[in-house]
Write a structure and sequence with these properties.
Elements (H helix, E strand, L loop, with lengths): L6 E5 L3 E8 L3 H9 L3 H4 L6 E8 L6 E8 L4 E12 L3 E8 L11 E10 L2 E9 L5 H29 L1
Antiparallel strand pairs: 1-2, 2-8, 3-4, 4-5, 5-6, 6-7, 7-8
Length: 163
């Protein structure tokens, strides 16, 4: 049975909290987040698509991503893994490699928490470090809601296809 979309995202202007319930175990969700598989689900035709993803999945390891906008512009970002507890937690720095209109190249910090629940995994994202840039935090809160919906749809569709 497909889950109803259960995604929430909010911000106080400094930190974003977003969460979703996904009908799959934490190991499956973790793999979709950190592997090359992320290129399959992260994005949509009307926003942007992930076109390149690489990650050295260890504390101190770097990660990089390039997304291509619907208009064809390539936008890089990257950072460093600060904490990894497979398959429960990832903490990483995040900075755009281009001049984001509301955030610039400010480095922020993203923490992912994957908690087992009765019918799958609760994914919670805490994204902080916006330094009072409320417009940037609001935009990113909307984006995290989209990202979690894409992740949920991808993982649950794969689970149903495998059943």
């Amino acid at each position: 049975m497909m889950h109803a979309l259960r995604v929430r995202s909010m911000t106080n202007g400094e930190t974003i909290m977003a969460s979703a319930e996904i009908g799959a175990p934490p190991e499956r969700v973790f793999g979709a987040l950190v592997g090359k598989e992320a290129e399959q689900w992260w994005g949509s035709a009307d926003t942007y698509r992930m076109v390149d993803w690489s990650a050295d999945l260890r504390v101190g390891g770097r990660w990089t991503v390039v997304v291509r906008t619907a208009g064809g512009r390539d936008l890089p970002a990257g950072g460093e893994f600060l904490e990894i507890e497979t398959p429960r937690r990832i903490v990483q720095t995040w900075a755009h490699g281009w001049d984001h209109p509301t955030l610039g190249r400010r480095q922020t910090r993203v923490a992912w928490l994957l908690e087992p629940i009765a019918d799958g995994t609760r994914v919670t994202i805490c994204h902080g470090g916006f330094g009072g840039r409320q417009e940037a935090a609001a935009e990113h809160a909307e984006d995290w809601a989209r990202v979690l919906a894409w992740l949920q749809a991808h993982v649950e569709a794969g689970r149903l296809a495998a059943a």
